[in-house]
Design a protein that fits this description.
Shape: globular
Order of helices and strands: HHHEEEHEHEEH
Strand content: 15-25%
CATH class: Alpha Beta
Strand order of the largest sheet: 3-2-1-6-5-4
Organism: Actinocatenispora rupis
Pfam families: GAF_2
Low-confidence stretches: none
Protein name: GAF domain-containing protein
CATH architecture: 2-Layer Sandwich
InterPro entries: GAF, GAF-like_dom_sf
Number of helices: 6
CATH superfamily: GAF domain
Length: 184
């Protein structure tokens, strides 16, 4: 379980949760199964009120699936430069938002009517992201590093399954949109 150690997961329980998620995602036979496993696992791992799977598609972030206490953005597409999931993909790192009402990366007109007040969004695919996993909470809160590490581990597990099941292996974010330090 070297991946768990690299992510800073130290407890046996964390490692077991991540290993179980990796096994389930690897056995998935359809894109819908992968998305369901990832969103449900993300929500459960970090005790979130919502979770989403976002895929990069032709300059847009496609909110492919979600599991939340109330509907959010499932089925919608947003320009990659105007979306927090796009920010995570462009920067190749987690986007941590403690309070969505004051974070300048958050499009207030889209978030204000929702329950989302804090979130963590992690890229799927490392240096060549094909999507992101998001977790949402209804109150402003600091996101513990353990939770970020669990989501990153889940993203690492989801990547090969999504590459296997997406048409053409998925579309990575173009190099010219990525931050220079994250070019493949």
């Amino acid at each position: 379980m070297d991946a768990a150690r690299k992510l800073g997961l130290s407890t046996v329980a964390d490692k077991a949760l991540l290993a179980q998620a990796q096994e389930r995602v690897a056995r998935a036979e359809t894109l819908e199964q992968v998305q369901h496993i990832v969103r449900a696992t993300a929500r459960s791992l970090v005790d979130a009120q919502g979770a989403t799977v976002v895929l990069y598609e032709d300059g847009r972030c496609f909110y492919a699936d979600e599991d939340a206490v109330s509907p959010l953005w499932k089925g919608q597409r947003f320009p990659v430069q105007q979306c927090i999931s796009g920010w995570a993909m462009i920067h190749g790192e987690p986007a941590i938002v403690v309070d969505s009402t004051v974070d300048e990366r958050i499009p207030q007109e889209i978030y204000r009517p929702t329950f989302v007040r804090s979130l963590a969004m992690v890229p799927i695919g490392g240096a060549a992201p094909i999507g992101a996993i998001g977790a949402y909470w209804s109150v402003p809160r600091a996101i513990p590093q353990r939770e970020v590490a669990l989501l990153m581990g889940l993203a690492a597990a989801a990547y090969p399954a999504l590459r296997r099941l997406l048409p053409g292996g998925g579309t990575p974010l173009p190099v010219d949109l990525r931050e220079p330090s994250h070019h493949a």
